[in-house]
Specification:
Helix content is 0%, strand content 35%.
Length: 620
């Protein structure tokens, strides 16, 4: 039977095919896109596809064509696609393995859909509430800088906080969730300067008190990790320290004249040798204190108080007057501050903020409001008044005056008032046996021979009392019974007083001195005869990186730079300059070591005249 036959002939024009179904394998090579002017058997065919359904495509793509838009139904279903490059947007589900790099934006990842990723790079991180198996809270980190008086942590920016602290600061916390655990990694700046951190009152601490954090970090790497937990949106927090990387040992070193065993070397009375280079006292973690002309008081970071040295008039507070001790001995109680006053007197503030004094009581210097004639010495700590807001205390003005500063920045003085050394009491020359306020807002107090020196909270510097050698820096040598401002600057920082000279640093790192310089104690590379009348206005000591300045006893001076190096000058007859000789220096000379404490929290007391000694804290 004859079958119908089809003959292909050359077309006369364009061919339009409304649709084509293919069963099997379509093998073709895509060439240039255009109009097929002639279809000849054996030649390739370029086809612009509408809808193609197939299980396999075999062939190579030639050119860089894109399927800009495929429309209709059904969609393009591909079994295996092999190519060297694929450029397109994919909307919908992808089933199968995806091998290679994928660059693009994931507009939406729906719950219940697997995510097959070769390499995924992301810069945006969401809270993760819809990740199965993960708690529905934010796991995000933020860095907070604490370089001012107040620091705020906004928890909406993350609950894992790196707190970089470089200043004393008060912390506040906002935007807590109903129930939330936060982590604070506190990193103190890399130096030996301590930084206080005041926490919100809403925190109840494990153990009952706020934690003691790293307070010295000279070489870097010291940190604390604190956890805070709330269940009422931050109204109340429960806090504890999980880690404190405080590797610093806070050691005491001494040099100079070792009278009464005040160098704490546990010697017998016949072996109290002079020391001309720094020698360590036993123990570690020392915090603050002072060495007088005969004895030492110092606290440790665990709030214990230790005393040693001479015990005349009961200065050691152990109820055993006149029995010297040549190694540190603990006084019971919990203490935050201590200072050894000259002329056998001692001061200490406990962790409740109460001021306690003991020892010699001339001129009412114990502040116990006693009438003349009943000023007996006391050999055990006795509280001054009932206030609980004291922050620091000590003596000044030739050892016959006491002072104290409270947390509200008020300054109080008491004792002898000859030559107006009391600081503005009226009428002049009337002594006081209880604390009397000096008007103003104050930060620090010191004093030399018979005068006072203090800084206010506005950065100004003031002096009063005896004006010999120009001690009051008023460009004269007059006496003043009330505080007189030194210059007009508002950048004064740390202060110290020698026997007949005074010193102060400024916030720009400069160091200034005035008064007597017979032994070169002004550090200006000059010496003067005993008839020298002194400098009556501040003169700069060379250098611009000074951090703090200290008195080293009888006309000796020391200062520490911001890099932790210690420099001394002045009288050195007892080796108190710590440079392994007894040669006087009239300009700053470096003491070996680079990690001396820039806070100088343990130091000789102001105006020490008869004693020649060196005591400083070193962080190692």
């Amino acid at each position: 039977m004859t079958q119908p036959k089809v003959q292909l002939v050359a077309p006369l024009g364009n061919i339009t095919v409304p649709g084509m179904n293919v069963t099997g394998v379509v093998t073709a090579t895509i060439g240039d896109v255009g109009v097929a002017g002639s279809i000849i058997q054996g030649n390739n065919i370029d086809i612009g596809a509408g809808i193609i359904t197939a299980t396999s495509f075999v062939g190579d793509q030639i050119g860089t064509y894109r399927a800009a838009s495929l429309t209709g139904s059904p969609d393009l279903v591909v079994g295996v696609v092999t190519s060297s490059g694929f450029v397109a947007q994919i909307t919908g589900d992808v089933t199968g393995d995806l091998t290679g790099n994928v660059v693009g934006t994931a507009g939406s990842i729906l719950s219940g859909k697997d995510l097959w990723v070769g390499i995924a790079t992301a810069t945006l991180v969401g809270p993760g509430q819809n990740l199965a198996g993960v708690a529905g809270s934010s796991f995000t980190h933020q860095t907070v800088t604490a370089d001012g008086a107040t620091t705020s942590i906004d928890l909406s920016a993350g609950h894992i906080i790196t707190l970089n602290q470089s200043a004393n600061t008060t912390l506040s916390i906002s935007n807590a969730k109903t129930a939330q655990l936060i982590t604070i990694i506190r990193i103190k700046d890399s130096n030996a300067t301590s930084r206080t951190l005041a926490w919100p009152d809403s925190i109840s601490w494990n153990g009952g008190t706020a934690p003691t954090l790293v307070d010295s970090n000279p070489s870097g790497g010291e940190s604390d990790q604190i956890q805070l937990l709330t269940r009422d949106g931050g109204v109340k927090w429960y806090g504890w320290v999980t880690f404190s990387n405080n590797r610093v040992d806070q050691n005491l070193f001494v040099a100079g004249y070792n009278n009464f065993g005040k160098f704490g070397q546990n010697e017998s009375s016949g072996t109290l040798a002079r020391l001309s280079s720094p020698t360590q006292i036993s123990g570690t973690n020392w915090r603050n204190g002072a060495m007088s002309d005969a004895h030492v008081l110092a606290t440790k970071t665990d709030n214990t108080l230790w005393v040693w040295g001479g015990n005349q008039q009961g200065a050691l507070g152990n109820n055993k007057a006149n029995l010297a001790i040549s190694s540190p001995t603990q006084i019971s109680g919990s203490w935050s501050f201590a200072a050894a006053g000259n002329n056998n007197r001692s001061y200490a503030i406990n962790t409740d903020g109460e001021l306690w004094i003991w020892g010699k009581n001339e001129w009412g210097t114990l502040g116990l409001n006693q009438a003349p004639g009943t000023l007996a010495a006391l050999s055990s700590p006795t509280q001054v008044g009932t206030d609980t807001t004291w922050s620091s205390a000590g003596d000044y003005a030739y050892y016959r005056n006491s002072w104290g500063i409270k947390t509200d920045a008020t300054l109080w003085t008491w004792g002898q008032n000859q030559n107006g050394r009391g600081g503005g009491w009226l009428p002049d020359n009337v002594s006081k046996s209880s604390p009397t306020q000096i008007p103003g807002s104050w930060t620090a107090m010191s004093g030399s021979y018979a005068s006072g020196l203090a800084t206010k909270t506005d950065g100004t510097l003031w002096a009063w009392g005896y004006g010999a050698f120009g001690l009051l820096a008023q460009n004269n040598r007059s006496e003043y019974s009330s505080p007189r401002q030194i210059g007009t600057e508002t950048t004064w920082n740390k202060i110290a007083s020698g026997s007949y000279s005074n010193y102060a640093t400024k916030t720009d790192g400069t160091l200034w001195g005035w008064g007597c310089s017979i032994n070169g104690e002004l550090g200006l590379n000059e010496h003067f005869s005993p008839s020298y009348s002194g400098r009556s206005s501040p003169v700069q000591i060379p250098g611009t990186t000074w951090e703090t300045v200290i008195n080293l006893g009888n006309k000796g001076v020391g200062a520490i730079k911001t890099d932790g190096t210690l420099w001394t000058w002045g009288n050195n007859e007892q080796g108190q300059l710590g440079i392994n000789d007894r040669t006087q220096r009239s300009s700053p000379t470096q003491v070996p070591g680079t990690i001396w404490d820039t806070e100088a929290v343990i130091k000789p007391c102001p105006g020490s005249n008869g004693a020649s000694h060196f005591i400083l804290r070193k962080v190692q």
